[in-house]
Design goal:
Elements: E1 13-16, E2 23-26, E3 33-36, H1 39-45, E4 49-55, E5 59-63, E6 67-71, E7 80-84, E8 90-94, E9 100-104, E10 116-120
Parallel strand pairs: 3-10
Antiparallel strand pairs: 1-2, 2-5, 3-4, 4-9, 6-7, 7-8, 8-9
């Protein structure tokens, strides 16, 4: 699946990899950020992963020449990760058969208007990863988690 069409209208947000070889626009609502402490995110980012999300139809990848996808080997969601082959930036996380795509929050241009909503997979946090006492939900059930889309 190529993610190049994007929704209509002006972009709600823009973003890119570190070197600028992969650029994208989001033309619809963005989900607030989930901070993921899972093993895969730690390996992919070198630390925790912080992801917003958008509907697949709202994401337009403007230049995907340097974009590559790799299957997430330990994922129970049949997921894949998108990254830049030029600079190594981790950009996207996409679960099979879901109508949305995770977007690495650090790749979004400011201002985003987003906030952190929860910590997920906190039970897999590295022994060096001291979760902040921020009062946010930890490992919430998906049905119980109320996340803002803006």
């Amino acid at each position: 699946m190529q993610l190049t069409s994007g929704g209509s209208g002006a972009p709600r947000a823009t973003g890119r990899c570190l070197c600028g070889a992969v650029r994208y626009e989001v033309r619809g609502p963005l989900r607030d950020v989930l901070v993921c402490h899972c093993v895969e995110c730690r390996r992919a980012h070198g630390s925790v992963g912080a992801y917003s999300a958008a509907a697949l139809d709202d994401l337009a990848i403007l230049d995907e020449t340097a974009l590559r996808w790799v299957d997430s080997p330990e994922s129970d969601h049949g997921a894949r990760r998108g990254f830049c082959v030029e600079c190594g930036s981790s950009l996207f996380w996409q679960a099979r058969d879901l109508p949305r795509i995770g977007i690495a929050a650090g790749t979004l241009d400011r201002p985003t208007g987003l906030r952190v909503a929860a910590h997920i997979y906190a039970h897999q946090a590295g022994d060096w990863d001291e979760l902040p006492p921020d009062g946010l939900p930890r490992d919430p059930d998906r049905d119980e988690l109320e996340i803002r889309w803006s």
